[in-house]
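Take a record:
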Amino acid sequence: MREKVILAREDVNARLEILKSFEPLIKKCIKYYVHDREYYSDAMQEGYYIILKCIYNYDFDKEYPFEGYVKSSLIFGIRNFAKKIKYNVSLDEQMSDEGGCLYDFLESDINVEEEYGHKDDIRRLKDAMDKLSDKQRKVIEEVYFKNKSMVEICKSRRCHYMAVTKMKDRALKKLREEMG
């Protein structure tokens, strides 16, 4: 088997041959651990993936035979796969004979249309801010985004209070015009 594994690392046909030889073991593990047949093909793919990992990760210096390494890897891998899918619940899954799904029972404070409109407003504000001069944009950012007072802005810029106030007013007027 050692030669097959070495060859399988380089040759696709050798890999396929090894995969085929362990297919019954994959099916047995699936039968034992995966109880929902809806996941059968996913579990098969997971088994193939585990064997391919074994081909590349097998250490020839160990005394443990390749077949044993694959078997234990498959058992633990398929069991972990089954644990993951055990907790999968679809929100669209029908809850009763009268209809209705889990999604219908969930409450939410989020209004999708409102959220989309909010994102659109933010994009429009960003576009409008890009049309301001650098000085105007910095004043708006400092006042509204960094919560600085007008006095702090005047001190940091070493300018008169009225100059900053007028700049802020012109910037707000321009923003209102741009945003409609």
